[in-house]
Request: fold
Amino acid sequence: MILKKLSNENIESYWELRLRALAEEETSFVQSYHEAKKLDLITVRAEFPKDYDHFIIGACNDNGVLQGFVGFNRETGEKTRHKGSIWGVYVAPEARGNGLAEQLMKAILREAKGSGVEQVQLVVAASNAKAKSLYKRLGFASFGYEKNALKVHDQYVDEEHMVLFFV
Reply:
């Protein structure tokens, strides 16, 4: 797998995989598939994160096919620029089981730390034991729990808030 920051040339493959993620893993993302599907590629391109403080790292197989991604946003306020957030962690089912999610997370954490961020936060479905286990192995600790954070059809999803401090 080749890990890299995604750029304009990757937007279409990213969006295709993002829509797949939203359809397959409804309880893992705030955005619904139906909301995302309404967006046209022009809007996606305009909102695509692609600077030092807002970016996506993707993992492509040897054929150049995007297999996973993870996003990062740094806070912009003067008093909050020391913090960033991980979002949208996803690995396609056919690429799972080889530690790709961990590779993506380590890559994005290196980038975040290199940018001067002192702490990184994320939110995970409380029922997602595999993801929580990975985040804990990487040094994240829980700092909050939101009951009924999402409502997917008639099912509520609780979310756990986690943080990793670099300093």
Observations:
- The longest strand covers residues 141-152.
- The helical segments are 11-24, 33-37, 41-47, 100-114, 129-137.
- The CA atoms of residues 28 and 125 lie 6 Å apart.
- The mean pLDDT is 93.
